[in-house]
Amino acid sequence: MKLIALIVNILCILALIPTAVMAMMSPMMFDAPGSDKNRMLWILAAAVFFLPVVILITQIFAWIKFSSGNYSLSLKIALIPLIDVAFIVFLFIVDPFANK
Asked: Most buried residue among 38, 55, 67, 74 by CB atoms closer than 10 A?
């Protein structure tokens, strides 16, 4: 469990860099005319924007639990950002860019 928690925590830290780039590029979702009125697009932009924040906060707590020897809780905390990732994937499936 210790090795799995360590690998997941390191992968989450490495995922912080591309998610930060995605968050910086998220305002470009509103380039199309009228896209600022799409409620689903605002939700998608917020989810993308807060993903690096969620990863950073969960990694702080995960490493605290890892250093105290609670490896299973560290692993569970490190996997919390997957909820946000699943939400972003769900919003892409729903097609938030369609004008209804």
From this structure: 74
pLDDT at position 40 is 84
The full DSSP string for 4-51 is HHHHHHHHHHHHHHHHHHHHHHGGGGG-STTGGG-HHHHHHHHHHHHH
| pTM metric for this prediction | 0.84
Which residues have CB under 8 Å from 19's CB, separation 6+? 51, 52, 55
Distance, in Å, from the CA atom of 59 to the CA atom of 40, rounded to the nearest integer, reads 28
- pLDDT tens, residue by residue, 50-62: 999 999 999 999 9
Rounded to whole angstroms, the Cα distance separating 78 from 44 reads 22
| pLDDT computed for residue 13 by the predictor | 94
Which three-class secondary structure state does DSSP give residue 99?
coil
The DSSP letter of residue 70 is -
User: For residue 36, how many other CB atoms are within 10 A of its CB?
Assistant: 11
